[in-house]
Design brief:
The protein has 349 residues and is α/β, with parallel strands linked by helices. Helices cover 42% and strands 19% of the residues. The chain is built from 13 helices and 14 strands. The strands form four sheets. A six-stranded parallel beta sheet has the order 6-7-8-9-10-11. Strands 12-5-14-13 form a four-stranded mixed beta sheet, covered by helices on one side. The longest helix has 22 residues. The protein is globular, with a radius of gyration of 20 Å.
Amino acid sequence: MVPLKFTLGTSAAIVKAVPLLVVDLLNEDGVTGRAYAFCYRPSGAVAISSHLSEAVDLLKGRDCTPFDAMQTLSRQFALLGVTGAVRMALSLLDMAMWDAMAQVQRVPLSSLLGSSPKPLRAYDSRGLGLMEPDRLAEEAKTLLQSGLRAVKLRLGYPSLFEDLAALRAVRRSISGDDVAIMVDYNQALTSAEAILRGRELEREGIYWLEEPMAHDDYVASAEIARELRVPIQIGENFNGPEGLLRAVNARASDYVMVDVARIGGVTGWLHAAGIAAAHGVEMSSHLMPEISAHLLCATPTAHWLEYVDWADAIVQEPLIICDGKVLTSERIGSGIEWDEAKLKRLETI
């Protein structure tokens, strides 16, 4: 469990620490591919770890690429269902395999994918949970000290009045008009309430309205997108590229944001990026910014990187923010390497 610098209160839960599952995949060439994922619950980490161990056993002794591995393992886990913990386990394995491949080639992951490391537009998603307006205002000022010029605000208070008070408190605390505010409801509203609140919030100049209601109700989400001028953002819960395709076909949102650990790892991300590009839909990332940065570099409709510093507690070289952007690591592979001393300290917490 990694303690958070900012307590994150959402409409679903109050989060003070996050369970991160770290993976070392040693191949026969002696190269270790690394990956990590946010597992939502401690029990999630246990389930994902169990599926991952079995998946690795199924591939032992085989010479296969990430694509071949995912094809094989998807068949093996089909009856259980390639979703939830299974999807995340296979995604983690895929991420580690791609990291190892880039290390063997002695290039950054983004370069292996045909691009190169770039500075990326990013928003700070570490804080601004549900709390009193005065505390929100102070936290917004603290977050902006990182140098990023965009922040995410969690809403979903009992009333629209409280939502507006929170948003206005953050807006007043920000100097200048060039700071974007993304709003996230974490699936808290009904369709009717989302339209009601969205009409008021769009007058306040928010950048997007994220997951106002149940993430997989694409019909209702499409209705909200039609009714509101503010762009609707969904996608962190897409189960593989197929989920993104269904949402795009339903016109469920204006933007999409993909979680590398739920979309199918690097391989799944590439498929999803192709779908988004073919439909002209801008695509952002969800969490795991260390690897997501490389993937956005190779995404034709790349939009925003979601920045959190959770992995700073376990990696040797945290991401760097410069001139208002996050710098994609130029180290070989994904750039992820564990700091063993940091990991040992976490074991005592």
